[in-house]
């Protein structure tokens, strides 16, 4: 038998009321629900997402890749074949055979060289000119290259410029502009000479036919020849008597008149040589200065004239003569200690 009293609700042995549903209605229920949920999430491991499956390769893709690889192999083969063909000389042989066939057709059609005409040739050797053209009678005219022939012709010593024309069907025409010889340059005292043209260029030609040209002496003298000739041309009567000119110290000229061996030396100044050259011409016209027994006229001082008498003759009443070399008389070169 159980004893029931009215204070049963206050004691610690009274039964607890069941928790209400929907723990969100009470604070205790709400807090307890969140704690239990958090503990459950912490203890439960996360599931990994499965990796995406690769789509299977189709036969179309396989065929495209094979086709690309085949194209690459074909290109490699073509390049290697072309390189081998070039190195083996097959292309050159085929090209030569084609050129020979074209030459045969041209010759049958009358396209061959039958005449070579030249204008302006005076000193250029005909044999050297034809060799430079690189063709001759009966050669296929279509094989003739006017531009290459022009370059070879202009390399000849006497040729300053050239025009080469191919006139079909059978003619080649050449127009030359040749160099003009102005003087002989004595390069060494032993008589080594070179012809100087109108631009001061030394030419590698035979000097013997030009022994009557004025002789130029001195290092760097060829480059001064055009200016010297322009200076001398101002007084033609005196210019015709100039036989040699020495470029002294790279700054002025000493001229020799009338004769290489025993002529009269004319010392021109460094500055304004044209004025001194004109004064000499006036004195020659008025007083016949150069007809006197003198061997030097010094015009380097603008306000005075220095004249040196000719030395006495040697034994026998004659002046010793210097020997000539290689058909051209040599001129003694003045050094810095002898003349300035």
TrEMBL record:
It is found in: Cell inner membrane; Membrane. The gene is ftsQ. InterPro entries: Cell_div_FtsQ/DivIB_C, FtsQ, POTRA, POTRA_FtsQ_type. Residues 111-179 form the POTRA domain. The chain crosses the membrane at residues 68-86. Gene3D superfamilies: membrane protein fhac (3.10.20.310). Essential cell division protein. Residues 1-55, 310-340 are annotated as: Disordered. It comes from Roseospira visakhapatnamensis. This is Cell division protein FtsQ.
């Amino acid at each position: 038998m159980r004893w029931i009293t009215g204070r049963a609700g206050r004691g610690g042995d009274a039964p607890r009321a069941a928790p209400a549903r929907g723990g969100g209605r009470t604070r205790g229920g709400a807090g307890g629900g969140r704690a239990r949920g958090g503990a459950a999430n912490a203890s439960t491991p996360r599931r990994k997402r499965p990796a995406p499956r690769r789509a299977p390769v189709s036969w179309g893709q396989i065929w495209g890749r094979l086709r690309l690889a085949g194209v690459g192999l074909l290109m490699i083969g073509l390049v290697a074949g072309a390189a081998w063909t070039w190195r083996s000389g097959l292309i050159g042989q085929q090209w030569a055979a084609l050129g020979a066939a074209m030459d045969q057709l041209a010759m049958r059609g009358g396209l061959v060289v039958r005449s070579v005409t030249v204008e302006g040739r005076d000193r250029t050797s005909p044999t050297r000119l034809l060799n430079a053209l690189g063709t001759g009678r009966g050669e296929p005219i279509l094989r003739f290259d006017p531009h290459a022939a022009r370059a070879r012709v202009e390399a000849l010593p006497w040729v300053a410029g050239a025009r080469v024309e191919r006139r079909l069907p059978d003619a080649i025409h050449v127009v030359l502009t040749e160099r003009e010889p102005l003087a002989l340059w004595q390069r060494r005292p032993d008589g080594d000479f070179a012809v100087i043209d109108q631009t001061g260029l030394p030419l590698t030609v035979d000097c013997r036919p030009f022994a009557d040209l004025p002789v130029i002496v001195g290092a760097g003298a060829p480059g001064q020849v055009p200016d010297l000739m322009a200076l001398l041309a101002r007084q033609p009567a005196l210019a015709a008597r100039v036989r040699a000119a020495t470029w002294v110290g790279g700054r002025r000229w000493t001229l020799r008149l009338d004769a290489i061996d025993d002529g009269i030396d004319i010392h021109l100044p460094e500055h304004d040589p044209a004025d001194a050259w004109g004064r000499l011409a006036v004195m020659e016209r008025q007083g016949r200065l150069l007809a006197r027994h003198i061997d030097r006229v010094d015009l380097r001082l603008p306000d005075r004239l220095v004249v040196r008498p000719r030395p006495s003759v040697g034994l026998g009443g004659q002046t010793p003569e210097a020997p000539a070399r290689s058909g051209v008389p040599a001129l003694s070169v003045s050094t810095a200690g002898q003349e300035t």
